[in-house]
Every structure is written in structure tokens, then in C-alpha cells.
Amino acid sequence: MLIDRRTLLRSWQAIAATVAALAAIPAGLFFAFGAGSKGRAADPSDPSAEWIDLGLAAEVTEGPWKARRFRREIEDRWKKTVVDESIYLRRRGETIEAVSAICTHTGCLVQRISNRFACPCHKSDFDEEGKPTSGPAPRPLDRLETKIDGERLKLRFVKFRPGLDRSEPMAS
Amino acid sequence: MDTEKSEAVLPSPAGETWLSRLHGASSLCALVFAGLLIGSGIGLAMAYVPSQAEAFASVLYLQQQGGIGALLRSLHYHLASGVVIATFLMVVCAVLGDIHRERKREYRLSVVTLLLMIGFCFTGYVLPMDQAAYWGTSVRLGIVETVPVVGEMKADMLRGGATFGAATLPRFYALHVAALPLILVILVLVGFKDALDRAARAYGPGLIQASGLITIAAFVVAANVQAPLEPRAAAADTEYVPRPEWYFLWLFQFGKYVHGFQWVESALLPAIGIGTLLLLPEFETSRKLRARGVGAVFAFMLGLAALALYEDRDLPAKPQYEEGLVLKAARDYRVECAGCHGLTGKADGPDIARLESKVKDFTRADFWDEATMTDMIEVITKGEAPDMPAFGERLSAEEILAIAGHIEANFRPRAAPGR
């Protein structure tokens, strides 16, 4: 035999490893940098960030936080699409406050249970002001900007990264 | 002759310890399961569409068609659990016995295989896009985000952006059906070549018979126990209570206790586990010590999982798609319709002030004189100018039918007795 088995085996493995690497490079590149991983900007103070109409401001009455579901249109890569979001609203005199329903721990949606917000996932609790009182949540529930425009209630909706002790907006 | 070679010839069925027998049996199961998973996966891929809009519908279609499609989905679902158990058992047996020292390379590759299997579970779980899939994956990505330094980047890569969107499912799908299987096949054929040779020499045709029996057993289970499918994912549903699959329950429970140091859960714990397993062959350890270690890990996991189940003892069972339809219709009506049509169907919702047209009153008999079920489904699906929105893009035909049914059942005036 011209070439012994060991050498052949070694060269075969070398070729296989090369082919595997060749496959991994373009796939890995796309995985890391491809498909509109568009920047993480999304500055909440960005004036172009849209105000979403939540209906008549008068519908939000004094009293405890109430869940509100609304719909917004987003540009999602190659298509415009409509997504549902949940927030909590309450009226304080002339202003209406909004708080994100997304738990700051891992991103489940918090529920209203008696006088608190409770996350059904890892049992984080938040008080009336959204401050964590027990459980693993690292920061208070995120406040959202609202304004009353004539009779209409407007909201600037931003999602924030879960798991951090500071509020960091994510690009949508 | 080097040691790798001599090992390849030496072991015979006689004189094997029960540990190495169990190791062999679980390896064979893992191998057969992997084969069946690839086969059923190819079948599923022929029906599945990895898009947010269509994923759920395509899985539901497959499930409701019954026959071979539903069978393949159940097979794939149960084998996914099976292959994790088999691979885990394989690693545990190697740790308890001497395999981890005698065949270091094989042992380490089996640890890598276990990680690969968890990767399959992670990427496959989201694909049906039911409630469990969406929420389980959202939470898990939230945990990935907390890995120090690279976490955010990794989560963004998996999602194809900062939020769960149009690019997400194709990425999970590509990993699940192309990248990971390719790695697995190369790993088995190249990494475990000697082990396969050895097994074939030791057991010969017995292996084929055993594989056949395992396959039959898998099909019997799949034919009798249907894979679960919860209602379609709803990203704004504050009433849904997300829970992980059974094998992640312990980690889920652990997450409740980690306050402020989430990287302990997302990075430190996995790093310690994987590191210990990979480095184990380098250290001289007694069988007793290893048995204690494995016992402690099992006690830790089972204890946490039991605690998680105990804390959830009052949690109602997750409704499956069919039962969920009725519940969902009631909720959809409350959330989507009641704003205008009113909670009691009397066209007295709070939003009617801003509408241009008059809202239909479902409690009037003359509405029902004209409306047929077909009309209602048509209007809900396509909307009606100027105010009635179209729901056909976001709800399946069945969900719309269920809403129409909900309206009919709850608001239609009952005919007077005797009529």
C-alpha cells in the first residue's frame, strides 16, 4: 500500500474538519451579523418615537391600576405587522400614569393581585408604585411616558431589557 | 497496539457491571431515538412553516389531520424527552462507573452530546408557537440576556434582533433542522466511531433486534399519547402563567431564589456543571465520592422540581387548544369586541362614541333574522367598513368560528317556548 491506514485516516479527518469549518464560517457570520440585527438604539426621548393613541382619556378613572391591552403597528424586518401589548394605567388627578406589564426579571407579564403586581413566573412582587418587594426582580416595573392630547390619551411605548438593574430600552 | 485499539476488542457481554450495561442500553436508546427524531423531523418539516403568522396554523393542521402527521408530531415530542433522558443517563453511568476514565474522549463527547440535545430542545420548543412555546422561549431568552458580557449579544443573535419578531422563528428553525443535526451526525459518526464498532462486534445482530423493539415501543407510546398543543401564542396575555418543560423545572425554581445575581443561574451554574463533567477524568476520584456527588446533584434537582410542583399545586392545568378555544373565544370577545359591542352584546361598549357607523346589537331578534353564521364569520374575518376591523390575519378560522359561536350562544335572544 502506498499510504498506510493511519495517514489516510488523518488526511480524511483533516478534509472533514476543513469542510466543517467552511460550512461554519458563512453560517456563523450570518448568525452573528445577518438578518437585520439592526442597532439597539431606540432612544425613548427620540422625538420620532410614535405616540400611540389609547382612546379617550376620560375612560381612565381614579382608582387602582387597570390592565389595558392595545395594538400597535411595527415595522418588523420585511413586513409591517400589528402586535398586541399590555400595560397598566391609573389616573392621578389630571395625569394618567402608565407602567409596563413586562416583569423586569425575565419578561413574563405581571398580574394585578389585590394591591400589588405579581409575576406568575418566578414570584416577583411589586408594590403600588411598581417597586419590587419580594422575589428576584432586579428593578422596579418600567414607567412609560403618557400625555393627554385634547381628549385623547397618548402613550409612548418602549420595551426594556429584562434582567438588568437599570432600564435599558430595546430596539423594536 | 495503543489503548484505544485494545479497548475496541476487549469488552465482552460477560463480566460487565450493571453500570456499563445501563450505559450501553441508554446509548443505544439515545442513538435509536436520534434516528427516529431525524426521521419524524423530516416529516414534520414537510408541513411546518417557520413564520410567526403561519407556524401555529401549520402545526394545528398537522395535529388535526390526524393519521400519520399527528403520529409524527407525537413521536417527535415524546422522543425529545426520551433522548434527553437517555443521554443524561449515559453521562451519569459513565461518571458513576469507570468509563469516564477508561474512555475519556468518548465520555467527553457524550457530555457534548447532552449539551447538543439541550440545544435541540431549546430551539425546537418554540417552533409550534403555542402559548407554552412563546412564553417558555421568551423567559429563556430573558435568562440568556443575563449571561455576563455576551448574554445580550447571544440573545439578539438567537432572536435576529432585540425583540421576538419576524426573524426569530427562521433562526431557531435553521439551528434546529440544519445546524444542530449536522453537528450531531458528524459527532456520532466520527466521535463515536470506535464505540459503534465495539458495540457492533460485541452484540452483532442483537443490536438491530433491540433497535427494532425500541422503535416499536416509541411508536406505541406516540400512537396512544398525543403531544400537547396549547392555544396560539398571545404576546399580550396577562392571564397566562408560563411554566417550563419538566426537565427545566429545577432551574425554574432555582431562578426564584436568585435575587440580583442572575448570572449565577444563567452562567455560573451551567459553567460549574459542564466544567466538572469535562474535567472529571483528570482527577483520581473514588466510586463512593462520585456516587455521593451524583446523589447530591439528583437530590438538588429533584428537590427543586418537587418544590416547584408543590408551589403550583393550585395552578389549573393548562387548557389545550380545543378546550382553550371556548375560553379563548370568551376572552377574545371581552378584549377585542366588547369595546364596541359591549360586554352583554348590546352595542354599548365604551368605544362607540368614536365610531362612524352604528354597531350591531346582538341581543335584538332582528339581527338574528338576517345574520347567518357564515355572514358573521365573514365579517369577523374580513372586517366591514368603516369601523369593524378584520381579524383574519391574527386569528385562525377556528378561533373566529368560536367567537361567532360565543356571540350566538350568549347574546341571541332565545325563542319563546312553543315557537
Please, could you describe this protein's structure?
The complex is a heterodimer of chains A (172) and B (419). Chain A contains one helix and twelve strands; from the N terminus they run αββββββββββββ. Chain A is an alpha+beta fold and 172 residues long. Chain B has 419 residues and is mainly alpha-helical. Chain B has three domains: 12-232, Cytochrome Bc1 Complex, Chain C; 248-316, no CATH class; 321-411, Cytochrome c-like domain (Cytochrome Bc1 Complex, Chain D, domain 2). Chain B is built from 18 helices and no strands. In chain B, helix 3 (55-65) crosses helix 4 (67-96), helix 6 packs antiparallel against helix 9 (168-191) and helix 12 packs across helix 14 (287-311). Chain B is elongated, with a radius of gyration of 27 Å. Chains A and B meet through helix 1, strand 2 and strand 3 of A and helix 7, helix 8, helix 9 and helix 12 of B.
Could you say what the CATH topology of the largest domain in chain A is called?
A: Rieske Iron-sulfur Protein
- Examine the secondary-structure arrangement and name the CATH architecture of the largest domain in chain A: 3-layer Sandwich
Proportion in helices of chain A: 10-25%
Order of strands in the sheet with the most strands of chain A? 1-10-9-4-3-2
Overall form of chain A = elongated
Provide a short characterization of the protein structure.
The complex is a heterodimer of chains A (172) and B (419). Chain A is an alpha+beta fold. Chain A has one helix and twelve strands.
Task: Please describe the structure with a list of short key phrases separated by commas or semicolons.
heterodimer, A: 172 residues, alpha+beta, Rieske Iron-sulfur Protein, 2 domains, 6-stranded antiparallel beta sheet, 4-stranded antiparallel beta sheet, 12 strands, B: 419 residues, mainly alpha, Cytochrome Bc1 Complex, Chain C, Cytochrome Bc1 Complex, Chain D, domain 2, 3 domains, 18 helices, 68% helix, 0% strand, elongated, disordered N terminus
